[in-house]
Amino acid sequence: MATTYKDPIFCGDIAGKLTQFNSSTGTTAADITTVDANGPIRIDSLIASVDDVAQATVRLTVSDGTNSYPIGVVTLNRPVKNTVTNTSVTFAWAATTITRSAGSWLADGFKVGDTPVIQNAPDTANNLLGTQAITALTDTVMTLGSASMTARAACYGQCSVALADNTPACTDLLASDRLSGLIGHDAADNEFLELPKGWKLQAALLALPTSGKTVNVQARWGTYAGA
Predict the structure, then answer these.
(1) What is the pLDDT of residues 14-57, one digit of tens each?
(2) Would the pTM of this model clear 0.70, i.e. be above it?
(3) Edge-to-edge, what's the strand order for the sheet holding 30-31?
(4) 89 and 188 inside one domain
């Protein structure tokens, strides 16, 4: 005789919520789900998206209403394009310029007004995650008008200069390896994160997004009473 299962994920009401973070909301934790007094809940969809120029880092916590407990930190990276690295050409830095020894910024698709993503530079101040716009550009010299970078002589390394893709970065948080030890699977192999009765999921940003940009966390959950 075949086994009959209840709904693969839910045995009660289903709810959803979209929580938005921006430069005005700060880094204080916000509720991603609400408390369900009827029983434990199972979250079967947890998607984060960022339209910032580079990346955002989200800390997830669970709360019993009195205490909060961290369960994972997930970095949301936007895809990049037109990447140039100093593995085969040298980069030299001044306060507002990056000079390459060969090739062409113009031919590589950069233009005035772009906000490049600079990572893995030898000096921390030179890692700019799309916060400075190109104000002047030649084949070999990129000028970032209001930057304040650390001067460094021409060198090779692993630094990359790229442009963020225009599409928002979407991340399935339930699939993140940071949460893998907490994720359950039902009889239909659906993934879920289960919270006890009276508990809720919260999220906070570790750093503010760029002004005018947003990070969104969308969740769906429902009451679960057992099969």
Answers:
(1) 899 999 998 888 888 999 999 888 889 999 999 998 876 566 88
(2) no
(3) 30-31, 200-205, 55-63, 68-77
(4) no
